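Annex B. Sample input.
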Amino acid sequence: MSRTKLPKPAKLPKRECCVSKSRCGRCPIRMLKEGTLPAGYTVKKRKLVTVEGKKVTKKKLAKAA
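Annex B, continued. Sample output.
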């Protein structure tokens, strides 16, 4: 019997950049640069916000990804 691999869930970005030199895997700034940030989100002043400028909650972010 062959096993099929399950698709990996998308990585969720952190709500705020931790300002590490190496940039962690979930850094919103890095994800914005790579284009892997969920649709409708952007980064302003190192914080993850919606395109409209509203604050992001973990619950809403999980639904978006």
